[in-house]
Each structure stands twice: as C-alpha cells, then as structure tokens.
C-alpha cells in the first residue's frame, strides 16, 4: 500500500538532488515554458542562465528569479557563440526558443518560412557546436517540438510542423552521435503562454475557449506543467532519445 508513495518520494528526491549545483542554460528562458522550466530548475538547486532575444526581458527575468542572463538572436551563429563563450561548463542545455511561423507554402515568403528551421534546427546546431567540449558527459540537451509534428493542419503551419518533426529526429540522431550526453525532445500541446496570446492577437477571446473545448481535459496546459516536464527530462538520467508528449491527450483525437 505504501509503495506508490515511497516511489513518488524517491522520484522527488532524485529530481531535486540530480540538479543540485548543476549549470542549466535555457534558450528561450525569459517567458512561457522556458521561464517556468528555469524557475523550477533553480528551485531544484541548479545554477540557471537564461538566454533570450530581448535584453530588457532577459534582465528582468534574471533579476526577478536570481538567474544569470545573456541575449542572442538564435539564428545567428556568432551571437550564439558570444552568449555561451564565457560559460566554462554546462550540465543541461535547454533549447526552447522559437516563434510561431505560419505561412502557406504556395504564397508565403520563403525567407520568413525558413525561420522555422533557423530558430529550431540550426539554432540547436549553433549552440551545440559552441559548447563543444564544455558539455558534461552525464548532462543533457532538451529540444522542443510540438503537437504539429504529429497533427499538422491546413492553416499555414506545414513548414512549422516539418521543423517540429525535424527536432524529434535530430534528438534521436544526436542521442547516438553525442552519447553519453542525453538528448530528448519536449512536445507540448496547447499551452497558455504569452506567445500563444501574441499569435492569436485580438481573436484570442474567441479562439481560446474553442481550443479549451476541443481538448479531452477541456482546458489548456500551463507553462508550469510543461516546465516541470522539461525539468524531468533534465533530471531523469534514463530518459534518452525520446519525445515526451505533454498535450493533455490532444494527440489522441
């Protein structure tokens, strides 16, 4: 009867202990899921460095939560190298940066659509190359994909869906190429974040209730829930080369 409680306590202790004193770098750590993950990693004893593309927001997040901070445009290799160059060692690298790139293939601007891959695949390559030799061998890298990787739609998200699916494939390949460093992907469903509100704009008061109603749990996920899943991928040393779906069951319908 006590086994589930004991197992839960054991997991909590493992999760907290495994991050104590570790250096965690979170790209996209100044808002939304990235900020939530950074806050929870800090609470678990990690030294956290957040990197965002907006200097003011990065500084404010760092001051509010006790992080170190940097700024970088993740699509620029030189900027990523500059942001990481003075960090002597990184235990856990989290790459959650990226905008919502939506345009239909037949009439969308190609340079704009290309950002879906630049902000995800190539930004990850830039960061991993920049940290070559400075990642802990027992550390981890966490990417982000999203429900579009499995459930694309006809609303101009084909390229974004492809970039999301590419992150999952990249993680699986790198889990072998970079071993014993672990590489995983977080795949969130509809999570209520500042980015979602920005994307929906004036339509959010209409669209958000419909999105909630369309999910099995009749609500959206929270940044804190997705952040906790990110911390789990960092902390659990047996998670490797996998995609963790945290979507409230959206991928089932």
TrEMBL record:
GO molecular function: oxidoreductase activity
InterPro entries, per the entry: NAD(P)-bd_dom_sf, SDR_DHRS6-like, SDR_fam
Highest rank taxon of the organism: Bacteria
Pfam families assigned to the protein according to its UniProt record, in alphabetical order: adh_short_C2
Assigned keywords, A-Z: Oxidoreductase
PANTHER family cross-referenced by the UniProt entry: DIHYDROANTICAPSIN 7-DEHYDROGENASE
Family the entry assigns: Belongs to the short-chain dehydrogenases/reductases (SDR) family.
Protein name: NAD(P)-dependent dehydrogenase (Short-subunit alcohol dehydrogenase family)
Species the sequence originates in: Pseudoduganella umbonata
């Amino acid at each position: 009867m006590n086994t589930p409680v004991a197992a839960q306590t054991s997991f909590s202790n493992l999760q907290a202990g495994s991050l104590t004193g570790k250096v965690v770098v979170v790209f996209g750590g100044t808002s939304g899921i990235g900020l939530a993950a950074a806050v929870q990693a800090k609470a678990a004893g990690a030294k956290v460095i957040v990197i965002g593309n907006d200097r003011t927001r990065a500084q404010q997040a760092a001051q509010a939560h006790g992080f170190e901070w940097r700024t970088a445009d993740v699509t620029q290799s030189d900027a990523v190298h500059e942001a990481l160059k003075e960090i002597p060692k990184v235990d856990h690298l989290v790459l959650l940066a990226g905008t919502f790139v939506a345009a239909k293939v037949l009439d969308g601007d190609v340079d704009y659509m290309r950002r879906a891959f630049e902000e995800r695949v190539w930004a990850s390559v830039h960061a991993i190359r920049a940290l070559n030799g400075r990642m802990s061998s027992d550390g981890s890298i966490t990417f982000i994909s999203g429900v579009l990787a499995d459930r694309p739609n006809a609303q101009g998200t084909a390229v974004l869906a492809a970039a999301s699916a590419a992150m999952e494939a990249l993680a699986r390949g790198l889990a072998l190429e970079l071993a014993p460093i672990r590489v995983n992907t977080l795949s969130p469903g509809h999570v209520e974040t500042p980015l979602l509100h920005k994307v929906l704009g004036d339509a959010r008061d209409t669209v958000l209730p419909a999105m909630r109603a369309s999910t099995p749990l009749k609500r959206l996920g929270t940044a804190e829930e997705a952040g906790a899943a990110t911390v789990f991928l960092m902390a659990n040393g047996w998670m490797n080369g996998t995609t963790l779906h945290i979507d409230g069951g959206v991928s089932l319908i």
